[in-house]
Amino acid sequence: MKISVIGTGYVGLVTGTCLAETGNEVLCIDINEEKVKQMQEGIVPIYEPHLDVLFERNIKAQRLKFSTSLEEGIEHGDIIFLALPTPEDEDGSADLSYVLGAAKDIGKLIREYKVIVDKSTVPVGTADKVTEVMAKETNVDFDVVSNPEFLREGFAVDDFLKPERIVIGSSSERATALMQKLYKPFVRSGNPIIVMDEKSAELTKYAANSFLATKITFMNEIANFCEKVGADVDMVRRGMGTDSRIGKRFLFPGIGYGGSCFPKDVKALHKSGKDSDYTFDILNSVISVNNTQKTILIPKIESYYNNDINGKTFAVWGLAFKPETDDIREAPSIYMMEKLLAGGAKLNVFDPEAMPNIKRKFGDTLNYANNMYDATKDVDALIICTEWSIFRTPDFNKLKKNMNRPVIFDGRNLYDIQEMKGEGFYYNSIGRVTVK
Ligand code: NAD
Fold it and tell me: Which of 3, 50, 59, 414 lies at a 20 to 30 A Cα distance from 365?
């Protein structure tokens, strides 16, 4: 099939590449000229594990091409995916200007029947709005489908190639049949393609993300309470997670959720509720708890230094909002570092992939280390913000030699409490006893 993807970011590029992998002819469109030039030269502009191999293979096979021309994109694809940003607007709602702007342009350029697929995360009713905007510009027949994306950054290729489910929101039989044909190779193991109306599909994505944000936030509150009463959240988590109604996943407490999806999606669903005279009390609490959780280590650090961190030097390990990505959008590390800098601390930072993005944001206010150990030279404490695998089994002796004092504040509970007792560190983590 001939496919166009408008917007070639984390979702669009993975979608385009994986659809090319199953034999489709894919044209990816982006307004960012530099990005398109890079991709035309065979460079993957983001870090996403395993993407490079598929990217290269499909470019070589001439199934994956790139352009800045929307006109070319509209002419090429029988199915046109919109994988455009839907960032948070000032009032918490999803900013639909990219999606509706593209809809208007597509309406002007469309010459024959096309299926427009909304892969961006959008509020209930957006498919209707896209239809309305396009219909004002053209008399040509088209269908708008809602097809929310559930991939996780860091596992995006695997998630796209082997999805647990595919949701298609459409009231058109013709469009649904085309979508089912396109996705058939991805569900050979028997996972479902769930067809529903557009509004339910749009809400499914927000409900899923808000539920996951709620689950992790609930666990963060349990962890905070554990600290007050001397319980161990690791034990509580294991005790709870073995109940199959609860499940083991997404119960790891830490310094809050971040990223380009959960924060904005929870707020957008909350705002959608408000717009329909419905108050999502639970989401109100999730937003507020997570705001506090992002900097939950700060009072602990301040208290350790008698409320004076001025002139102290800290190592920060992990800057991306989660491991296996270079994405720093809404990363808890950013909120932590801003507070530490405001208190007069100096920061030596290290992340395996996110350093260039952090450098663009923080400039020379931070010291950028070449590796995780260099970051710890002559520091007063190590602060861990992201659970990259390489931080899980460090050489503690090397750390002790490097650091002024053996002090670790761990926002991701990377180390075993019993083991840390023998290592000679002051070790403060989330929801567990402090090792002194
Ligand atoms: P992104 O910011 O990484 O990429 C968006 C791309 O669109 C950028 O390359 C940008 O240059 C391009 N763009 C902007 N305006 C354009 C235009 N008019 N024409 C062509 N290209 C244009 O965004 P993303 O993370 O891929 O997210 C896209 C959508 O998918 C959002 O709605 C997001 O909520 C949703 N989503 C994201 C994820 C994720 O993990 N990142 C997962 C599921 C769903």
Answer: 414
**Domain identity same for 384 and 320:** yes
Q: Residue 121: CB within 6 Å of ligand 1?
A: yes
Does a structural domain hold residue 433? no
26 and 71, same domain (yes or no): yes
Do residues 248 and 241 make contact, with C-beta atoms less than 8 angstroms apart? yes
- pLDDT tens-digit map of 291-347: 999 999 999 999 999 999 999 999 999 999 999 999 999 999 999 999 999 999 999
Cβ of 9 below 6 Å from ligand 1: yes
Contact 4, 67 (CB under 8 A): no
The answer to the question of residue 435 being in a domain is: no
Q: Both 237 and 302 in a single domain?
A: no
> ipTM of this model?
0.99
Q: How far apart are CA 38 and CA 41, in angstroms?
A: 5
- Does the pTM surpass 0.80? The reply is yes
Each residue's pLDDT tens digit, 49-91: 999 999 999 999 999 999 999 999 999 999 999 999 999 999 9
For the CA of 10, the nearest atom of ligand 1: 26
Q: Which residue lies with its CA nearest to atom 41 of ligand 1?
A: 10
Residue closest via CA to ligand 1's atom 34 equals 121
Q: Which residues are catalytic?
A: 261
Pair (11, 29) in one structural domain: yes
Given ligand 1 and candidates 95, 149, 329, 330, which is best to mutate, with the most ligand atoms within 8 Å of its CB?
A: 149
